[in-house]
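[job 4417] fold queue: 2 targets
>>> target A
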Amino acid sequence: MDRFDRLVSRFDHWLGVMLDIMVITLAGLLLLLLNWAVFARFILNDSVSWGEELPAHLLAMLTFIGAAYLTRTNEHLGFDAVLRVMPAGMMRVVTAINLVLMGAFGAMLAWYGGIAAASFGARSLISIDAPMMLFRGAMPLGGALITLFCTVRFIGIVTGRIDALDLLPESDA
């Protein structure tokens, strides 16, 4: 393995660790906040002001960061059963085309998500004093990560450093 491969591998590892932490933190926070909101409303008979707004924004964040996470772990929605019956050369071509399309989607998500996130400027959530940009920034971040993952994998497929079988979902090994 040459120096560049080690660098990409190390970067991918740490990016994966960061995504793991982000997804687990967002999901855990969402779970805690929703349970507290239900507990406060039905047991304490005292509804919280952020009971709907904050969890909705956290769920949106989890959606976009989670999409990047699933792209990285090869668990995104796909028709891998079709790929499995193809010859190796055709599998590489179809995988490369798929990566280009997914990367283009990620780039559009990053671009237009960035425009949408910037349009909120310094506005805050209604129920708590948290900037909307914090929550809306997950869309361009998720799109940029999807594009990054797809670009690196496309280069790996084209150069032969990555086998198309390696990009099938992990659970199907």
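>>> target B
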Amino acid sequence: MPFSQLSSDHIVDTLERLAKRARDRFPTASLNNVIEELIGLAKRDRRRSQRLSRPYLLLRSGIFLAVGLALVGLVYVGERVFNWAQESGASADVFTVFEGVEAGLNIVILAAVAIFTLTRVEERLKRSLALDDLHELRSVAHVIDMHQLTKDPTALLRLGPSTTSSPVRSMSEFELGRYLDYCAETLSLAGKVAALYAQSSRDPVVIAAVNDIESLTSNMSAKIWQKIDIVRAAQPNEKVAHED
């Protein structure tokens, strides 16, 4: 795998390592289920994104068949025009030629329409497959964002009393920082899974959808890192622990 391309296998391996890290740290957190779901999507999308770079042989064979039939039709029309010209004499040659040219043009037009239609069908099938998968990745990104939504780092500063409706916040500063970091990593990897489609497709609609997902995950990650900075600011005199 060249370094100029994303490796789908490495993305899946990184997700699986992240799932183990998150489950070891937070064995009962529902974020683990989201990561497992993303791993399943990444494995499926790995195969589907690779399929986008390969031609649909059945449709391509239809294109070659249309070209072959057009050539056969032109040869047939040319032969008939030649025979009609010999049988009809010089007075009918001009009309015979015009009829032959019209028939040839009709064959060329029909062949061009068939080729264009089959090409568009392949493009639309691949686009539909990619957009459906990208829609799922977009939904997963929003689910990840929901998991970090109630993880308010300002609660660590104890600026005011909690209400009866306040969510339960039992994490320490270190645990909250790790949880938010896992959310940010998961979002980043979701964007990388989406990028596999842009790598395998030249369709501008697919590429635009991938860019939208990458922008979405980047913006969500930026919000999470603002929370992480607040967590670190809440413990200025403590050494921040790191893990693999």
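[job 4417] complete. Note on B: Confidence is low (pLDDT under 50) at residues 238-242.
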